[in-house]
Amino acid sequence: MSAALEIDGLSVAYGKVEALHRATLRVNEGAIATVIGPNGAGKSTLLAAIMGLLPSKGILRYAGALLDGSSTEERVARGMCLVPERRELFAELSVHDNLLLGAFHRRGDGARALAADFAEVYARFPRLKERSGQLAGTLSGGERQMLALGRALMAKPRLLLLDEPSLGLAPRVVRETFHIIADLKRTGVSMLLVEQNARAALQVADYAYVLEVGDIVLEGPAAELAGNPRVVETYLGLSSAAR
Amino acid sequence: MNADIFLWLVQDGVTNGAIYALLALALLLVFAVTRVIFVPQGEFITYAALSLSLLEAGRTPGTIYILAVGGLAAAAIDGYAALRERAWRRLPRIAALYIVLPLAIAFLVAWAAPRKLDQWIQVLLVLAMVVPLGPIVYRIAFQPLANASVLVLFIVSMAVHYILSGLSLVFFGGEGLRSSPFWDARFKLGVVEISAQSLFVVAASLLLIVGLWLLFEHSIYGKALRATAINRVGARLVGIPTALTGQLSFLLAAFIGAVSGILISSITTLYYDTGFLIGLKGFVGAILGGMASYPLAAAGALVLGLLESFSSFWASAFKEVIVFTSIIPMLVWLSLRSRHVEEDEE
Ligand SMILES: Nc1ncnc2c1ncn2[C@@H]1O[C@H](COP(=O)(O)OP(=O)(O)OP(=O)(O)O)[C@@H](O)[C@H]1O
Ligand SMILES: [Mg+2]
């Protein structure tokens, strides 16, 4: 199977402190890979480096081509998209304008294509439609999450990187979020999913990696990893007790 | 004071205020997008005004040398960056934008200058010479420092101002110049006479302000500029080229500076360093408006223009003192308010 994303020996450092040590992983075309791990393991660092927000050493290959030296904008234009952990919305712009800017790299696509995408996003998140004129900074936490995901959908990505998309959401909205992830997979989008909610992540993903203090310590098909005693104890046991 | 003088002072104040308003908007725009306090704004005014006067006299303005050499320097920096990243395909674009275009403009101006063409052609030539200096200055001085603090950017901005005003003295000399008005008719409106040139200035400023408003509220590029100002990381993540938005904001600011210079060049006599003082008043206008909102900045600049014109009548020796001390209450208020904002965030 061809790879949407191949990462080989990727290291990222903040100053002198290395936060990611020679990580190697891949996301198959049309598949979902997930990275789980404790706080501070380097998951967000990994995603930022993939998008070119942080300088990194090692090999990054997207859709077969090296990403060497290409800027974040170029990566976005080639179909990569990140929903970052901090969401990075445009607080003083309206919900509508945030969504519109999500499609910035497709500004040549014409008004009709954009209108269809707006309709699709609003159909998925009726709440955003009600609030389309409201400033993004005044949305509730959950609504902001929806907007972040909606903005990413407007970009029509081929590879979607999701950093804790269910963070702080009510259970019903979490389910909705994972529905959307499964839907997107059906339309052929490849995804790399970082989640604290390991149970849900392992259910929706095809392949999984466990990242601990900058090292990938375990990997395997998601279903297999979900049965691994160490994963059950550290990541699933705890989350089932908490819920 | 009788009604005649009062109305005359209002006219004078509104005319200057309109120009300060334009400059205030440009300063706010540049600050919002790049966090640079654009001190060299004044030099763009000077360059445009003096270049226009020289063209009128049939002389070649030294601006073309600044443009050509600046373009080469920007090309060297960009080319070096491209070579290091092995992005060969960027080279032709760099050469076209920073070498071919400035040289073409320079030669065109050198050819046209002795021919004393129509005034509107001279205006276009001035814009073609001065406006590209905006992105070039950004590329050389500010883009490499995009992540520096506001203070560092401010210091660099001061340095750029000194360099540009030094070049201004070298190329324009110390003599004062004034260009002829576009339209020297006068209209009688009741008791007052309004000069056509004042109307022209106010109309051009209004037009530019409406144009800027349309750009920011209704075009995807304007929204991209605002988005960059609000959240740089977010802007990069939706694919907005943030280096380009910086250049675009400098391009707009240079355009506004050049237009202001062209408008003002027939109203007052300008020297090589006059622009700085005018730019500073635009800055004061922006501060009077709270350094935050575009309409308030424009209003602040208008108030400043009126204040200046009336104080020149009552206490002309203290004109500049009155104008510049007017920001002190505003600064006190701003600093009180910003402390509250910080407390809110904690
Ligand atoms: N800008 C930074 N400067 C210095 N160190 C940083 C910076 N950002 C992150 N780190 C450090 O790098 C390590 C990895 O951080 P990262 O945000 O990638 O973790 P994470 O796996 O996403 O954690 P979480 O689950 O809490 O989101 C942490 O030890 C963190 O303190
Ligand atoms: Mg994280």
Task: Describe the protein.
The complex is a heterodimer of chains A (243) and B (346). Chain A is an alpha/beta fold and 243 residues long. Chain A is built from 10 helices and 10 strands. Chain A folds into 2 domains: 1-79 and 159-243, P-loop containing nucleotide triphosphate hydrolases (Rossmann fold); 89-156, no CATH class. In chain A, helix 3 packs parallel to helix 6. Chain A is globular, with a radius of gyration of 18 Å. The N and C termini of chain A lie far apart (37 Å). With 346 residues, chain B is mainly α. Chain B is built from 15 helices and 2 strands. Chain B has helices at 3-34, 41-56, 63-84, 91-112, 119-130, 133-142, 150-172, 196-218, 220-230, 232-237, 242-264, 274-288, 294-314, 319-325, 327-345; strands spanning 186-189, 192-195. In chain B, a hairpin with a 2-residue loop joins strand 1 (186-189) and strand 2 (192-195). The longest helix of chain B has 32 residues, at 3-34. Mean pLDDT of chain B is 86; it is low at 341-346. At the A-B interface, helix 2 and helix 3 of A face helix 9 and helix 10 of B. Magnesium ion binds next to helix 1 of chain A. Residues 43-44, 85, 163 of chain A line the site of magnesium ion.
Which labels suit this protein?
heterodimer, A: 243 residues, alpha/beta, Rossmann fold, four-stranded antiparallel β-sheet, 26% strand, globular, disordered C terminus, B: 346 residues, mainly alpha, ABC transporter involved in vitamin B12 uptake, BtuC, two-stranded antiparallel ribbon, 15 helices, binds adenosine-5'-triphosphate, binds magnesium ion
Could you give the order of the helices and strands of chain A? Answer: EEEHEEHEHHHHEHEHEEHH
Largest sheet geometry of chain A: 6 strands, mixed
- CATH architecture annotation of the largest domain in chain A: 3-Layer(aba) Sandwich
CATH homologous superfamily descriptor of the largest domain in chain A: P-loop containing nucleotide triphosphate hydrolases
Secondary structure category of chain A: alpha/beta
| Mean model confidence by pLDDT of chain B | 86
Q: What overall geometry of chain B do the principal axes of the alpha carbons give?
A: globular
- Low-confidence runs of chain A: 239-243
CATH C-level label of chain B: Mainly Alpha
CATH topology of the largest domain in chain A: Rossmann fold
